[in-house]
Structure formats: structure tokens, C-alpha cells
Fold:
Amino acid sequence: MFFIRVISRAAHLGARLFLPLPGRRDCPLREIKFALLVFPGIVLALMAQAASAANLHLASDSEIATAGFYQLSWKIPKPLKQVELYESRDPGLRDHRVIYRGPDLARAVSGKSDGDYYYQIVSTDDNDRYASNIVKVNVAHHPLKNAFLFFALGATVFIAILVAIFTGNRRGSAQ
Structure:
């Protein structure tokens, strides 16, 4: 019963807004009333679209990459189907290059030399350009002398194990 009253009142209000007033043949305010009713909906739709585009978020699994590789991942709102991943050595991304274009939500990066790299996701679906936050990744490989030190240490342990195996075997077979 309550819903029927609400619907009838809404229909009565709609009739008063869009039908000519009693005694008049036309309603000169019909277009203005229509615009006043539609305008808030348009504003809300634009705000929702801007809010969804503001949800572009880029993240890295490490701020300092010492292993030589790292992964970038991003979240995009549902309406956006394709993005571009920009890479630059400049914090302002003025000299960027596109290293990925497509619908994926992550990208593994490797083979970079030491230094700072900056990344950003940009939507490419429509005429509007939506951009994510800028992520900085510092690539700092382990020093080469540490690599040689670990190699030498591993080789020494390997040789010591081989010597122990062969000398232990000879002692056991002589008895």
C-alpha cells in the first residue's frame, strides 16, 4: 500500500512538471525543468567516471631491486580495458617510453642497469587520459666482488666435500 502511494505521488509530480499548466496550451518551462532534472544525473555520472579513473594505482614489489628483477602491478577500474606502462629515468616522466600496452594487470621487469627508474600507468581507452601514481624503483645490483667471493667460497666447500668423499672411501676400503 505504501509503495502504491509513493508511485502515485511521483506520477502526479511528474505530470505537474512536464504537462502544460491548466488553461495553457504549452509549457515553456518544460525544457528548463527537464534540464534541471537531468543535470544532477549528468554531474553525478561525470563525478563517478572521474572517481573510477582516479582509482588507477601502480605498485612495485620492491623499492630497491638488488636481485636484478622486480614486478610492477596495477589496479584499474572495470570500464578501462587497455593501459600503457611508461618507464623513464626522469622523475617527471618527460622522456618516457612505453614498455607495455594491453589489458594485463602486472609486468615483470629485468635486465636494468643500476639507477632509478620511474613508472606510471596511463589509460588508452577513450579520449580522456587518466594516469596513475608514479612509482620509483632503485636498481642496485650486488657488487661484483661479492659475487666472486661467494663463488670462491662455494667452490672451496665443493672441493672439500669431494676430498672428504674420496679420502674417506680409501680409508674404508684399506681396512
